[in-house]
Amino acid sequence: MSRFMNISNALPLARWFGHRHSRTSPLQLLLRNRLAAAGLIVLIAVCILALITPWLPLHHPNQTALGNRLLPPGSDGHLLGTDHLGRDILARILWGTRVSLSVGISATLVAATVGSILGILAGYFGRHVDNILMRGIDMVMAFPYILLALAIVAVLGPGLLNALYAIAIVNIPFFARNVRGVTVTLRNREFVDAALLSGKGHARILLTEILPNVLPVIVITMSTTVGWMILETAGLSFLGLGAQPPQADLGSMLGEGRRLISTAPHVATIPGLMIFLLVMSINLLGDGVRDALDPRLKAGALRRPAARTRTAPAARQQPTGEPKGLLEVDNLRTEFHLDGQVHQAVNGPTFHIEPGECLGIIGESGSGKSVTAMSLLGLVASPPGIIQNGQVNYQRQNLLGVSDPVLRGYRGGELAYIFQDPLSTLHPLFTVGDQLVEALRAHRPLSYRAAWQEAVRRLEEVRMPNAARRAKSYPHQLSGGMRQRVSIAMALANDPQLIIADEPTTALDVTVQAQILKLLNRLREQKQASLMFITHDFGVVKQICHRVAVMYAGEIVEIGPVEEILARPAHPYTRRLIGCVPSVDYEGGRLAEIPGLPPQVSNLPVGCKFADRCDQVTDQCRAAPIELDTLNERHQARCIFAREVSA
Amino acid sequence: MTMATETGAPVDTTKTALQVTDLIKQFGGGRSLLGRPLPAVHAVRGLSFEVRPGEILGIVGESGCGKSTVARMLVGLESPTEGRITLREEPLAEPGKPIKRTVLARKIQYVFQDPISSLNPRKTIREILSAPLYYLRGMTESQRAERLKELMAAVNLRPEFLDRYPHEFSGGQAQRIGIARALAAEPEVLVLDEPVSALDVSVQAQVLNLLQDLRRQFNLTYVFISHDLGVVRNLCDRVAVMYFGRIVETGSTRALFDNPQHHYTRLLLDSVPGARDGTLPDEAANAELPDPFHPPTGCAFAPRCSAASEQCRQSDPELDTRRQDGQQVACYHPAGESAD
Ligand SMILES: Nc1ncnc2c1ncn2[C@@H]1O[C@H](COP(=O)(O)OP(=O)(O)OP(=O)(O)O)[C@@H](O)[C@H]1O
Ligand code: SF4
Ligand code: SF4
Ligand SMILES: [Mg+2]
User: Fold this and answer.
1) Which of A72, A442, A578, B59 has its CA 20 to 30 A from that of B222?
2) Which fold does the domain B2-107+187-337 belong to in CATH?
3) pTM to 2 decimals?
4) For the domain bounded by A33-61+74-299, which CATH number is listed?
């Protein structure tokens, strides 16, 4: 039910709303939605009719004519017939719609204003303000709302205005809760602190910083509740607590017609249809508004991504010769198709990993390191990801072309991943021991007890202090370093041949990072496994990697032994990247920065992708793609001057 | 006396710009609505330091050690539970007194860690940068227009960018806007809380160089918070190492990096991958911080320290002046002593 929708974490919404230059405006999105557009048309028609009612040539809605009682629709002079007092139903329905609409909209405005003020104040000031306001709101919500509305009208006395108040009051909590949720998230954003430090007071921050970001949420909540409020007002009038005779509103007309349902069904049916039309059109429009303002809430938007990256036939061919090393990646190309644009994230890296080797992949954010790693086992989300070309050869098979069950068998088995954020791989509701048991039993037939013992042993192996007790902990009870130990234990559970570690220490403190690096290195040696280690830190590469591949704009620009590359980088990008890292061992004076930014992967240059930032660039660099140049058997670089530089 | 520092900018060593005395911050505590006592987190547990005019003081330490809390107290976003902060002998924050935020904001400004999150997505850069000019400096429309151009030039951004929205900028550009906003208030002191940790190294170098240039150009004093020891070594004149809400060692950057005295400082430096002699410290069983709800009575580092004695577990060592050049260490058995 849409009215109970909670949009408290609508942060991307706020961000989305800031995109004034986005390609499609919310209005365009709304009109593209057929149902919403139909709702809008019906609603506009009803509203126009209601607005011009006083000027239409109609009977007086309250004029009784007992001689003309219960005329059927189509009678002379009474298009929709008359009711039990001979009043013209057409006139009454139009006047009644006017009343119902204005009461419903007024109640919405009152509820929205009061609820939003309460929600913003509670969310912004927090603590005691929040406590008191939200406890009050909870108390209101503890009653079934129609009962509460009835109680309020009972206290205030029947009448349209009192019905309006009652409906507004029972709807305040919906606004207060939604708005409070968004405000809390916004309050924790640093721009609020920044505004305080710019000299703005709290009132001004609420009005100029918070409110504009909350407004879309208020609009969404309004558009999805106004229909309900009209229905609730009609309900009160139906029970005789709203509009008082002889005044007509849709609810009271329905109530009066109910007694005549067998003798003159049209008296009840016509207001019923009108209510249906009105509420239906408003709700369709409301859902459309919601979808346009916050696409994440759209029905069906929570589509699960495919279990495996979409792969073009060109990338599914089986290898012909003997693959190099343990795992060989050849000309891998992964793209993202978004909004009619093609983002070429991975542009043909070719490399292999020897058994027992640690290969580092280094590059700045957006250079394609993670997408490369995730493409190996089809873990890139599809849509929007698609692997267009290339081979990932392991045991004489191209992993991009094997069947789903075969691939699943490798994942978490012989080929394992460790991610930067262990919380993304650990399930919050199971103990770490149980999750290890699950990982073990997915690949081996083990009893629960045996698997549990094995899990504890694995935790000891990663030097988890007090492993037997910690196995019963939930992920949130562990520190960041301990969680990363758990995800390493999970990755190692089935004695993998290759561990793909994607920045596993980036989120950790330096002393914890040192321990995890030592741990990974020891396990790699003990188990004779290979390690593919993704990082943006040359220190880490120097510490644990044998060879390193430097990535830039989705390409490998240089690959070779770590000592050789650190001592004699052949590619200008590698050289300058090393140069701009400040060292703890000496003061370097002014840092050597690289001017500019990497190119956008949706619009890559033809020639060298580093050309715009390179101080050695010539016309030849931009003319055609630069090939990897082999400097020696193990060292290659993608620069036309590579030989001269490294010499 | 004015002397050139390691980073080449003039520092007046006879004066004090910012002085922090016995600063304490607890979160929570007090009583619930029903009168039950609430647990308190001891985030900052008695901290004193001073920053000289024109100096860059680095504060290093691991997550949760209280660095950000100190930074937020310096700019008035939090008020201290106990202790004093003074700028040129003028009190800025004292317990129990309300924070005069606009007075403070004209003297000390803040640069945030997350450049994107610190810019309101629905405001143009012009609106964001105009706020401090209007509210703190009371500038007229034409004065503001002039100043906005100067600010954009100072942080190497094109003036056309003024009418764009934050999402149109890269992290490095957004951080320059954050720096421009801090400069707009014409402060004496900038507190920078991990200003480059969200940036890529090539962009990080651009921003660090910019910070160096701005300091000379506008005679600024920096408090620079970071967990990246390489960045601190290359930028800062002096360094304070924090562990669990306290300063455990402070001194000139060179002295501290070349001759670390506290065992925690040593551990930090040895843990940097690919540096020093290239071997990392052993995989210790216990690398956890103590429980901030129940701080230990003795040295907070004792559970991880190989030199810990009974004395260390009984009472917490105070910062001691060890050497003439002002290096101070809070340790009963400093690492450098036997080696000297
Ligand atoms: N508003 C708060 N309420 C309760 N506890 C807090 C609050 N802010 C900080 N703390 C606690 O205070 C301690 C110090 O936090 P602080 O944010 O200053 O650490 P930090 O060194 O800046 O960490 P990081 O590098 O992760 O930002 C931590 O134990 C933290 O959980
Ligand atoms: S190919 Fe040309 S532009 Fe590219 S890195 Fe080499 S010298 Fe620079
Ligand atoms: S005081 Fe004791 S426990 Fe603390 S660092 Fe010094 S030697 Fe170690
Ligand atoms: Mg912090």
Assistant:
1) A578
2) Rossmann fold (3.40.50)
3) 0.83
4) 1.10.3720.10
